[in-house]
Amino acid sequence: MLKPRFRRRRLPNLADQFAIWLNQHVQSALATLGRLLDTPLPTGMTVAVIGISLALPGALYVLADNLRTLAGGWDQTAAISLFLQYDVDDAAANNLADRLRKLPEIAQVQVITRESALDEFRALGGFEEALEQLKNNPLPVVLAIYPQPGYSTPEQLEVMQDKLLKLKEADFARMDTVWLQRFQAILDLIQVGVLLLGVLLGIGVLLIIGNTIRLEILNRCIEIEIMELVGATAAFIRRPFLYAGAWYGLLGGLTAWLLVTLALVLLQPPVSRLASLYRSDFELAGLGVTATFIVLASSISLGLIGSWVAVNRHLRGAEPS
User: Fold this and answer.
1) Among residues 315, 299, 314, which one has the least CA distance to residue 245?
2) Residue ranges per domain, the chain?
3) Beta carbons of 211 and 241 less than 8 angstroms apart
């Protein structure tokens, strides 16, 4: 008599376990998204609040970034403009420029002749009739002086300016980078303000998502109790709410990106008109790839943290004493 042969059940390997785990999470994420879409009005209101909260620091960051880009084009401005005596001709100005280039604190000296200065002044527009009445060129020769990187502080530029004014060919000098340094300081202040505002609004987003998940937990309280009675683990109960928080964060981050992009599209035409008046083709830059990733990652993280806190607080309160 043949004995029955029992086939040993094959245990799932690591790849099978990962596939099962991934399938469970995908199902939970899609089911959670479907639950949110079934209530479009409450979900849309929550996402809108999150998006507006994240769009405000994002818009200020874009503003500061565009201003910093605009100021980067001004960095090529000469640190000191040295106006020479009117009787100094181009040859004498070139000789003086050669002497100044040998100084260790000076990196570059550009000679702006009278003719080139008049042409540049004429290119600005609006003074054609007045310039036609001039018999002689009233503009002096100007030396645009660029210091070495180690001599660009305001104190060092003032010392350099006093030294240049002692030259017999010099008439007067003007420092052109002091206002730029002040502008850079203002931009640094704005950047710190954007960071602080982002932290405060991030805390607000965290509270909004946490309160939204808490209300959803209360609506599904009976369902959670049944899952606990049949032996569901805390991780299994927590999973759909974590995905709900992540979806809120992702949708809120995308809304913030959309609001910032829409604001830039609406602002670009007047900015282009203003730039054209200054003979510039400046265009606003939006949130780049890195900034967009940071916004989305931050919003998703805030959603996960808020939902985690809300669910854990409920689970701790539901434990028998």
Assistant:
1) 299
2) 37-73+182-318, 80-176
3) no
Place of tokens 């054609």: 128
Report how far apart, in Å, the C-alpha atoms of 34 and of each of 212, 238, 294, 314 are. 16, 17, 26, 23
Q: How far, in Å, CA of 135 to CA of 116, rounded?
A: 17
* Each residue's pLDDT expressed in tens, for the chain with a length of 321 residues: 455 555 555 556 677 777 777 888 788 888 888 888 888 898 899 999 999 999 988 888 888 888 777 765 555 555 788 888 888 888 888 888 888 888 888 888 888 887 887 777 666 655 556 666 666 777 788 888 888 877 767 777 788 888 888 888 888 888 766 666 777 788 888 888 888 988 898 899 889 988 888 888 888 888 777 877 887 777 788 888 899 999 999 999 999 999 999 998 888 888 888 777 766 677 788 888 888 898 899 999 999 998 998 888 877 765 544
State which amino acid sits at residue 38: D
Alpha carbon distance 176, 142 (integer Å) = 13
Give me the sign of the Cα torsion angle 83, 74, 272, 119: positive
Specify the CATH class of 80-176 in words: alpha beta
The residues pairing with 146 across neighbouring beta strands, listed in sequence order, are: 108
Helices (H), the chain: 14-38, 40-74, 90-101, 114-123, 128-132, 154-165, 178-219, 221-229, 234-277, 289-318
Residue with tokens 């606990």: 228
Report the distance separating Cα 19 and Cα 197, nearest Å. Answer: 42
